[in-house]
Prior knowledge:
The protein is of the alpha+beta class. The chain contains 3 helices and 5 strands, in the order H-H-E-E-E-E-E-H. The protein has a 5-stranded antiparallel sheet with strand order 1-2-3-4-5, with helices on one face.
Amino acid sequence: MRxxxxxLAFGASTVFAVSPAIAQPVKIEDLCVKVAKHLLMTETLxxxxxxxxxELKPPGARMTYSTRDGVEKKNMVDTFECQFxxxxxxxxxxxxxxxxxxxxxxxxxxxxKRRFDEVRILLEREGL
Length: 128
């Protein structure tokens, strides 16, 4: 509607209706991929096996991944795991683990707690 009004305000003779994209609900496995991308500071993350468990308390997901291109899924051995407060928005990031190192709000290791807070803040900035 805003585009139509702008077109009319600028004297456009032809107006095309533009329908907004219908947003699909975010799944916890997709959000876990986003958490991994933020922690690893990469825009590209190739996933192998992805498993999600929205019915568990806390709900979560885990996956194998590679930051390198051309790696076959069966050869992806690095693991990443996420846990959330809820299975649906608002998700509330609870904890995530890269291999055997875990990050959470109540982490005793100050650096790991800081990494958790950084990722949580990045998700909040994206409205997640």
